[in-house]
Design brief:
Structural class: alpha+beta
Helix content: 25-40%
Number of domains: 2
CATH class of the largest domain: Alpha Beta
Radius of gyration: 20 Å
Number of helices: 8
CATH topology of the largest domain: Ribonuclease Rh, Chain A
Number of strands: 7
Distance between the termini: 18 Å
Strand content: 5-15%
Largest sheet: 5 strands, antiparallel
Length: about 300
């Protein structure tokens, strides 16, 4: 324990140098971020999007965004390698956790009071409402407020942005998607709500879902590995992932469908998005990868990735 604390005290100045008002004492005191789900004990539960009656308490099940997508990137670089922003070797990276509606539509930026994205994308809602850019402290400071150094460490290794700081990406994902997920509503936390509990819980939920689908390992287990010499077919990718998840995810490709770039795993959720059971489903969106042409799953440049293997 003494060794762990000594290491933590060494790391704290690095993590808090840009965060005014924080002290080592506050970071060592880790408050809980649990929503108050007592009312859910008396609610009939079913998988999201599969209910036959109206869900009375939307804190108990993601509503209407019950088609949940756990999304990942296969990026070849970050554009910020010189600043130390690298990709995790032997792993895809986390994109987000998205609440599509049961009909495949989706909301975005649903609560401007929790809009922390400095560069909203899109910049306007479909009705023309301008999404105000956020100009306050980074969401990284919210994580530090709750003493979640473990969370910040994991996100810095596996939730990686391209061409901009990681924290901008994290803010975007919460603001665009979590604010449209009913189980992260501030009202679900009750009168003891501490500011930004919902932000921490969303990041933890996105990571839990990400860890359920170790794409790199699932593909590698059947001999599909990044290569600059060997190509694969769409069916090879789909069959490999379906054999291990029970469903066919969405695969996204660039360069006219010939370069693999992303994967989306679809689920219905029994219970809350934070803690519930995810039932994997077939993609409802057609792949943008070619069904006939060879597909490249390129190797990354060595300078763009580093060795990381940990969990939280």
């Amino acid at each position: 324990m003494a060794t762990m604390l000594a290491g933590l005290m060494v790391a704290l100045p690095l993590l808090t140098s840009s965060v005014a008002g924080f002290s080592p004492r506050s970071l060592l005191q880790v408050p809980n971020t649990y929503p108050n789900l007592t009312a859910c004990l008396s609610q009939p539960l079913t998988y999201s999007c599969e209910n036959t009656t109206v869900i009375e308490d939307t804190c108990c099940s993601p509503t209407p965004g019950g088609l949940v997508l756990s999304t990942q990137f296969w990026s070849l670089n970050t554009g910020l390698e010189k600043e130390g922003q690298l990709l995790p070797k032997g792993s895809w990276t986390l994109h987000g956790l998205w609440p599509d509606n049961c009909d495949g539509s989706f909301g975005q930026y649903c609560d401007f009071s929790r809009q922390f994205d400095p560069s909203p994308s899109p910049s306007k809602l479909p009705d023309g409402t301008v999404i105000p850019p956020y100009k306050g402290p980074s969401v990284e400071t919210f994580i530090l407020e709750f003493g979640r150094l473990d969370l910040l460490d994991y996100m810095s290794k596996y939730w990686i942005n391209q061409g901009a700081p990681n924290s901008d990406f994290w803010a975007h994902e919460f603001s665009k998607h979590a604010t449209c997920t009913s189980t992260f509503d501030v009202a679900c936390y009750g009168p003891d709500y501490k500011q930004h509990q919902d932000v921490i819980d969303f990041y933890l939920a996105a990571i839990r879902a990400f860890q359920e689908y170790p794409t790199f390992d699932m593909l590698a287990s059947v001999g599909i590995v990044p290569s600059n010499k060997t190509t694969y077919t769409l069916s090879q990718f789909q069959n490999a992932l379906k054999a291990q998840t029970g469903a066919t995810p969405y695969l996204g490709c660039g360069s006219d469908g010939t370069v693999l770039q992303e994967v989306w795993y679809y689920s219905h959720v029994f219970g809350t998005e934070q803690f519930g059971h995810y039932k994997t489903l077939d993609s409802v969106d057609p792949s943008t990868c070619s069904s006939t042409a060879p597909i490249w799953y390129y190797e990354r440049e060595a300078f763009s990735e580093h060795e990381v293997r940990n969990t939280i």
